[in-house]
Amino acid sequence: MTEPMSLKDGKARRAAKAQEGGFGEILKVVVQALVIALVVRTFLFQPFNIPSGSLIPTLDIGDYLFVSKYSYGYSRYSFPFSPNLFSGRVLASTPKRGDVAVFKFPKDTSKDYIKRVIGLPGDKIQLINARLIINGQTVPREQTVSVRTKDQFGQDVEVPTYLETLPGGVTHQIIQLNRDEGLYSNTPVYTVPAGQYFMMGDNRDNSTDSRVSPDQDGVGYVPLENFVGRAELIFFSIDDGAPVWEFWRWPTSIRWDRLLKPVR
Fold first, then answer.
1. pTM of the complete model
2. Which of 130, 144, 222, 256 could cysteine-pair with 185, CB 3.0–4.6 Å?
């Protein structure tokens, strides 16, 4: 009577080992996936979502995009929790005029901001009657279609859009809510310090950017070290006010025309 019991015990042990092996394989796959995701997020691409309208019409509230981490090299802000392991950048590549870039807010580096690179180190930037002037030259622009958006009070308004061509040839679209009378439509001359950059939103009258000093809770100039990466691609977009987790609403709330749209 002992032999059948031994066979039964052996089968039970083999089954238990198989179950343990199966759990171990699942755990191994999960750990590997987490490591790969961490490597990709840290060194290659990081997802961000757009919570404000400062870059309308280029980026809209509810857009989700990939930012390339390798575009400007790596600083302490490339890594989770921004460990103070080194200063400056490794494998550094300087931002180009016209890039849409994510950076750490200089006054509070726990916050991520996204704006367009307008001024490079040494540039002189000014706005007169809402016209952008770089190094004494007025940046050419041409009016295009009008679009509906929200003003600073949340009211729907129709505003003109313009195609603006920056020095170097980057052409991008901007909107101007208040035409020539906006709060930051007439500014002093800003001289961009060495190693820093002047950032602006494409929604010119509704963007707290480098035109606003840190003393006024603005961005001011942005050090190269603070750059996180360059915006590359909109991979998902959903109507403003539609919670992304309500997937049953996706067929009507997803902005299908914005999916897989490059950021320019």
1. 0.84
2. 130
d(CA 32, CA 19): 20
Q: By the 8 A CB rule, do 57 and 100 touch?
A: no
What would the pLDDT profile of 183-196 be if each residue is shown by its tens digit? 788 999 999 999 99
Q: What is the pLDDT of residues 81-106, one digit of tens each?
A: 888 888 889 998 999 999 999 999 99
Residue among 75, 115, 185, 237 flagged as catalytic: 115
Cβ atoms within 10 Å of 28's Cβ, excluding its own: 10
Fold of 50-262: Umud Fragment, subunit A (2.10.109)
54 is catalytic: yes
Cβ count within 10 A of residue 109: 14
Q: Answer for the pair 173, 165: CB distance below 8 angstroms, yes or no.
A: no
Preceding amide of 95 cis, omega within 30 = no
Residue 253 is among the residues annotated as catalytic for this protein: no
